[in-house]
Fold this sequence. Notes:
The chain is an alpha+beta fold. Helices cover 30% and strands 23% of the residues. The longest helix is centred in the N-terminal third of the chain and has 11 residues, at 20-30. The mean pLDDT is 89.
Amino acid sequence: MLARDIMTRNVITLHPSASLQEAARLLSDYNISGVPVVEGGGAVVGLLSEADLISKSGRIVADIMTRRVIGVEEETPVDEVAQILTSHHFKRVPVMSSGRVVGVVSRADIVRMMASRWVCQTCGAVQHGQRPGACYDCGAEGIMFERELDPRPEITARQ
Length: 159
């Protein structure tokens, strides 16, 4: 499974010139703990987290955001994303395509993937976790499985 398969596509972002009040309201309203900071055109210039908001001083997002950003590509395997998250103690990484943010993968997205239900479209068998390579019941190839998983309600409910 790849980053593009589990990433949150409706990315909530901030501009570096946003006020800290705007940033706090955004995180609170969407019930998220951090966001990519992007300039015009979608180029990621930083990340802003709850920890940045409560531990640093400044007037605007650019004053307190974390500038060191490690992103992944859409084709990055989820196991590699999980390794990046754990080894760097990150809660999320932006997913990039052509230098622009197209998604975010958080630790919660990986846990949600682990809890996924996959239904074989051939026989109806249900399997959990990552997409199966083949159906245990009828032997159908993994491409015959459809994922049953609700999108993140705190993101999609606001659109």
